[in-house]
Amino acid sequence: MKRIAIFASGNGSNAENVINYFQQHRCGGEVALVICNKPDAAVLDRAARLGVDAVVMPRAEINDPDKLLPVLDEYGVDVIVLAGFLLMVPGFLIESYRNRIVNIHPSLLPKYGGKGMYGRHIHEAVVAAGERETGITVHFVSEGCDEGEVIFQASVPVAEDDTPADVEAKIHELERLHFPRVIRETFID
Ligand code: GRF
After folding, report:
1. Residue 24: predicted pLDDT
2. Nearest-CA residue for atom 10 of ligand 1
3. Residue 3 CB contacts under 8 Å (≥ 6 apart), including other chains
4. Which of 31, 105, 111, 185 has a CA positioned 20 to 30 A from the CA of residue 24?
5. Contact at 8 Å (CB) between 104 and 179?
6. What is the mean pLDDT of residues 178-182?
7. Under 8 Å CB-to-CB from 155, ≥6 apart: which residues?
8. Is residue 77 helix, strand or coil?
9. Best mutation site among 36, 121, 168, 175 for ligand 1, i.e. most ligand atoms within 8 A of its Cβ?
10. Has 121 been annotated as catalytic?
11. Secondary structure of residue 13 in the 3-state scheme
12. Using CA atoms in the order 99, 103, 104, 109, what is the torsion angle rounded to 10 degrees?
């Protein structure tokens, strides 16, 4: 059984979707743990509801190998999934889990990636630029922000009158459709 840790910072709709998928498909993977840097994040309620352990670790603890690595060891974590995780991943974690950390980014990287490009900011920039399509990217996490090797992309049309909220809804639907399966195909099958 491959044991997955999800790192998240906020709402957690992707975390919930991934947990559900691995609870419903007996495919050799399971979400063992959620790590969250915000004590009041909705993802914590979702994890509790789904019976998955969650650990709150503020930024300083996530950046401290002596704090973070023992928690991952305790849960026997094999792979790490970033799903709406807003902190930079510390270098020691990338080294310890080389090619075993993936992130989902809500744009077609390399477009709309990098510092400051997260959440609604991305969809606002996409609409402001008059893009006629956007999408999602699942990629390995490397030292550069949003720069790791791309594993999967899917796109969706942007209509002329779409608002950033409309685009966000389309993106969430794409994420819901694809993200768990891509994790499975990358690490388990
Ligand atoms: C998602 O759009 C994801 O691609 C991005 O941040 C958003 C998180 O949403 N990294 P949620 O917390 O999973 O609801």
Report:
1. 97
2. 84
3. 29, 30, 32, 33, 75, 76, 77, 78, 79
4. 105
5. yes
6. 98
7. 108, 133, 134, 135
8. coil
9. 175
10. no
11. helix
12. -70
Kindly report the length of the chain: 189
Residue position matching structure tokens 């973070």: 68
**105, 139, 172, 178: which one is catalytic?**
105
Quick: pLDDT tens for 49-99. Answer: 999 999 999 999 999 999 999 999 999 999 999 999 999 999 999 999 999
Handedness of CA 82, 25, 108, 141 (dihedral sign): positive
pTM (two decimals): 0.97
Structure tokens at 11: 């709402």
Kindly write down the DSSP assignment for every residue of 89-139, as one continuous string: PPHHHHHHTTT-EEEEESS-TTTT-STT--THHHHHHHHHTT-SEEEEEEE
Extract the tokens encoding 150.
Answer: 């791309």
Locate 59 and state its tokens.
Answer: 């930024």
Given this model, what pLDDT does residue 1 score?
94
Do the bridges between strand 101-105 and strand 133-140 make them parallel or antiparallel, or are there none, so unpaired?
antiparallel
Calculated CA dihedral for residues 109, 110, 116, 120, nearest 10 degrees = -30
* Spatial CA neighbour of 116 closest among 124, 31, 90, 54: 124
